[in-house]
Amino acid sequence: MARILKGGPVAAAINERTIAAVEQLKKKGVSPTLAILRVGEKEDDLSYERGVIKNCSKVGIDVRVTALSADVASEDFFAALEGLNRDDTVHGILMFRPLPKHIDPNAARNAIDPRKDVDGCGDASLAGVFTDTAVGFAPCTAWAAMEIIDYYGVECSGRSAAVIGRSLVVGRPLAMLLMHRNATVTILHTRSTDVPAVTRGADIVVASAGRPEMLGAEYFAPGQTVIDVGISWNEEKGKLCGDVLFEEAEPIVGAITPVPGGVGTVTTAVLLNHVATAAQNMAK
Predict the structure, then answer these.
(1) Range of 199's domain?
(2) What is the pLDDT of residue 74?
(3) Are 116 and 92 in contact (CB under 8 A)?
(4) In a domain, 96, yes or no
């Protein structure tokens, strides 16, 4: 049986670091603050917002919500965003996406001050990931995967890694983060051929394609570490599932993250730690 790489202990360890950082900042008169920018009232956004606020309260981070109507004029949206950029008491900005079609999504994500881009969605933050420099922050889900790898002592240096998916949210930035740890990385995508042969030959397999339970037993080999980033609702089974068909992969591989209870559990903890780090950087 595989070792189950649960996200709960990892998130708890990150939260401990965040709490310690927040306490030190507050002693200096700085209250780390996250600004949530939400357009409209979609239930999934509202649910996520409630979860973020709850978790912020646990680590001592203040939250401000800027809620705009779904039909807000583009210029008013960008004015609100610029106001958050200019507010020195705001240390992190979390912009809910996707935005309404009349707001340019690329212009919006790149309008966030990189110092406050705690979700790592702007080009400056992504450039920081690719160049391994302290510009902005890595996307939270990609960094959450690395936190799990570090917490459980998964060796990256000299190992081969196969990353399935090339999104700017997970696949490409995570491939760069693995390369910075001296892994040899192959990025696989919809045009890749014989994907199972590549993944079977890898020491680390990261599933971030966004296709539920697409990776069955033929994709895996004994001893591998599998990081399943995917999360989807399986109507037939009535439960959440990842990109990996867990019941087929788990008996084969050496270690695997569960869904739910894996990478997703760590992502919010990473976001809040980014807010604390941003506050530290701005206080210097």
Answers:
(1) 140-264
(2) 98
(3) yes
(4) yes
